Amino acid sequence: xxxxxxxxxxxxxxxxxxxxxxxxxxxxxxxxxxxxxxxxxxxxxxxxxxxxxxxxxxxxxxxxxxxxxxxxxxxxxxxxxxxxxxxxxxxxxxxxxxxxxxxxxxxxxxxxxxxxxxxxxxxxxxxxxxxxxxxxxxxxxxxxxxxxxxxxxxxxxxxxxxxxxxxxxxxxxxxxxxxxxxxxxxxxxxxxxxxxxxxxx
Length: 201
Fold this sequence. Notes:
The chain is 30% helix and 12% strand. It has 201 residues and is of the alpha+beta class.
């Protein structure tokens, strides 16, 4: 049994080619003229020192006209003892529309102020869309996106992952909005509070 011939769907707003477009060659010449005109204007601006099409020799140079709030590479902020401010709540991974974040939690019951922290925190930059939702969702000011974007280009997707050690060390920051004491300080504060409670009983 033979198949019926395929009938191409016709849309109500489908454009119709005029005689000029059907000749094809004039449109090719028109496209080359537009491209050449823009190239010539930008080259003239560059030669005369005006602001035209900017070429930045990355990574030796970075663009000066980035927006002040440009979202670049992620960092994890640190507590006073150097450990991550993150409490591994997974809110950033949950809100991520690209699902490019993977977090495993670790538990330290001796750290009374901050018992939960990430054992693994990975971001896949081959999928990240740099929306900043993770920063907005974080309740601890534990993840930020800085303006610069170092070491992003890569020939292999498997190399475009950033892990916990790099998130903490490549641009360390400890000026968190919700500071926690270090592990030893938190334990001492808990003991003092328990002793005070016992003295009043």
